[in-house]
Write a structure and sequence with these properties.
Elements: H1 3-25, E1 32-35, E2 37-39, E3 54-61, H2 88-105, E4 109-116, H3 127-135, E5 141-153, E6 160-170, E7 176-181, H4 189-193, E8 199-206, E9 212-219, H5 228-246, E10 249-255, H6 263-266, H7 282-285, E11 290-291, H8 294-298, E12 323-327, E13 332-338, E14 352-357
Parallel strand pairs: 3-4, 9-10
Antiparallel strand pairs: 1-7, 2-5, 3-14, 4-6, 5-6, 7-8, 8-9, 10-12, 11-12, 13-14
Helix pairs in contact: 2-3
Length: 363
Amino acid sequence: MARPTRYLLYLAACAGLFVILLYDVTWHPARHEQVAVSRNAKDGKPPVLAPGQTLKVMTWNIQYLAGKRYVFWYDLPDGSGPDERPTPEDLAYNLDEVARVIRDEQPDIVLLQEVDDGAKNTDYGNQLALLQARVADLYPCSSEAFDWKSDFVPDSHIFGSVGRKLATLSRYQLDSAERLHLPSPSGHFISRLFQPQPALLVSYLPLSDGRHLAVTNTHLGDAPGGDVRKRQVASVRQLQQTFEQNGTLWITGGDFNLLPQGQYQRLPAEQRAPFAAESELRGLWESFPMIPSNEDVAGEDRRTWYTRFPNDPRISGPDRTQDFLFYSPKLKRVEARVRQADTLLISDHMPVIARFRVPAQGE
């Protein structure tokens, strides 16, 4: 065999092995898959939600328990933040703080985003399991789904494994759960293999009258540019519309990485870059009720509805709202708030908390 031919065959074999290696260390989730529901009720079955009850829901991006003592590389627009990971001491402290807030509030449903599991920069720990050990008496049921996972990410700030989840805790019985894939940013095929894979984690609570309440947990992508955010919002809206058509009650919460109406204009110019002047979130708030509402964030008390305090040294306090709850018009909003006072140092997000009345059939 001629030398050039042998050389080409050698290159082809190396390329093939490289592709196999890439595929092996990266994650390839299905577009739609059932996920396991964990049930751990020591005193029999968990209670079943009944019509007429009020349901307290919390959504909170816990920022993988990193806390506020850092400026990570991604916290600055040019990627120059000096920090790469939190210390084990801060991870342990913020775990206790998250558990403290949850135990104090005792919501019926807890939607958590950015929960690490198997990530190098958080010492490979399963943060959901650690948290559940502290609140197991409150939440016998749970579901979880990865939205970022890889055995190895070559980025110099990580250079190791990542594992990040959506997690839902429930005081009430869960029948089933599923992970629905969301549109991902376009880009080079190889780079996409190592990026987050945004998703919807949908958990189904049976009602005592035979109906179901679908609780959806999500963390939309934060990549600006292109139309991926519009497509992600459209996917969320389509799911909610399907629930409405099927007569399924529903609540959707999470970190949407988008602003409510008018908030873009209130941000300093240097803080506007990740957002569009016309928020893609409009596709949801025009269709369904939202917490915080546009009226909440535009009123005299608008600062009490801020949910984000970025780890950026130019920002001295919460200055925007990126976390929301959307809900079926059949549910009644009883009360809502953002817990700010004692959560500012736990995460770069603050929890949104609301109570809803579950309607009887025909209401």
